[in-house]
Design brief:
Layout: E1 6-17, E2 20-26, E3 29-31, E4 35-39, H1 46-52, E5 63-71, E6 74-75, H2 83-89, E7 90-93, H3 104-114, H4 120-133, H5 137-140, H6 153-165, E8 171-175, H7 183-196, E9 201-205, H8 209-215, E10 218-223, E11 226-232, H9 233-238, H10 243-249
Parallel strand pairs: 4-9, 4-10, 7-8, 8-9
Antiparallel strand pairs: 1-2, 1-3, 1-5, 5-6, 10-11
Helix pairs in contact: 3-4, 3-6, 4-6, 6-7
Bound molecules: adenosine-5'-triphosphate (ATP) and magnesium ion.
Adenosine-5'-triphosphate binds next to strand 2 and helix 1.
Length: 254
């Protein structure tokens, strides 16, 4: 969607792992304070796309890019763009909760500390604010000194969201954040994501079509590295323009 409210935009973005082309000339826009869902069958390039938004794919030696991605109008692949600055603004949550093997408090204070905040009372404030934002406070306020590995999977995932929020990003990228969780924990994360869009911009990869339909404002359907259809979630699910989209959302392949 062309709009001045787009925080991330890609322009004919292509990506190769060596000679495997994972993304083909993707034009997508991520609108501020909205939830954009990315759906499509396994291997279609969803993770590659979302990981490109904060240059997580740079870790692959054989990575080759084509086209552009901009964050607030600035080309993220420009030599002048500092990856650490980009990642501070664009945080990432993975499929499997990955808290550090440290206390809850340390998990949240870690990022702010690396950004130069050392005063205990300031860190306490950030820890409390971040855990509250992640809708986890009531469950853990008396356990901040305990190991994060003692939390349930759903609590660990909310802790990881709190950790991402602790450095005040603008965008949160979530790659199948609930696929390892039970329905109750999934419901809590979905409610949290909806709550967070007031303050943040969210892009979420999901295999769960109901989840995309429930929480997102826009949906992008990828197939074999191409963006087949992108639009308001209602349109994609109720009146898709492409036959392929219709076949996918009605479960005829995937
Ligand atoms: N590190 C890698 N090296 C080589 N090829 C890769 C690598 N990671 C992904 N690919 C290939 O790139 C394509 C897109 O993969 P990607 O992980 O983005 O798909 P996906 O849509 O996230 O799939 P899934 O739903 O299974 O997570 C696939 O063909 C995959 O095999
Ligand atoms: Mg993936």
């Amino acid at each position: 969607m062309k709009s001045n409210n787009n925080i991330i935009e890609s322009d004919k973005f292509s990506f190769w792992y060596g000679n495997i082309r994972a993304l083909k000339e993707i034009d997508i826009q991520i609108e501020k304070n909205k939830i954009t869902a990315i759906i499509g069958p396994s291997g279609c390039g969803k993770s590659t796309l979302i990981r490109s938004f904060n240059r997580m794919n740079d870790v692959y030696e054989n990575a080759i890019y084509g086209g552009r991605i901009t964050f607030k109008g600035i080309n993220i692949f420009d030599k002048k763009t500092e990856i650490t600055d980009l990642r501070k603004c664009v945080g990432m949550i993975f499929q499997k909760p990955n808290p550090f093997p440290m206390s809850l408090w340390e998990n949240i204070a870690y990022g702010p500390k690396t950004h130069g905040i050392h005063e205990k009372s300031h860190l306490d404030e950030i820890v409390e604010r971040s855990i509250k934002l992640a809708a986890l406070w009531d469950e853990v306020e008396n356990r901040l000194g305990e190991s994060a590995l003692g939390l349930s999977g759903g609590q660990q995932q909310r802790l990881c969201i709190a950790r991402a929020l602790s450095i005040e990003p603008e965008v949160l990228l979530l790659d199948e954040p609930t696929s390892a969780l039970d329905p109750i924990a999934t419901g809590k994360i979905e409610n949290l994501i909806i709550e967070l869009k007031n303050k943040y911009t969210i892009a979420i990869v999901t295999h769960n079509m109901q989840q995309a339909a429930r929480i997102s404002d826009y949906t992008a359907f990828l197939y074999l590295g191409e963006l087949v259809e992108f639009g308001p979630t209602r349109d994609i699910f109720e009146r898709p323009k492409e036959k392929l989209t219709e076949r996918y959302i009605t479960g005829r392949f995937g």
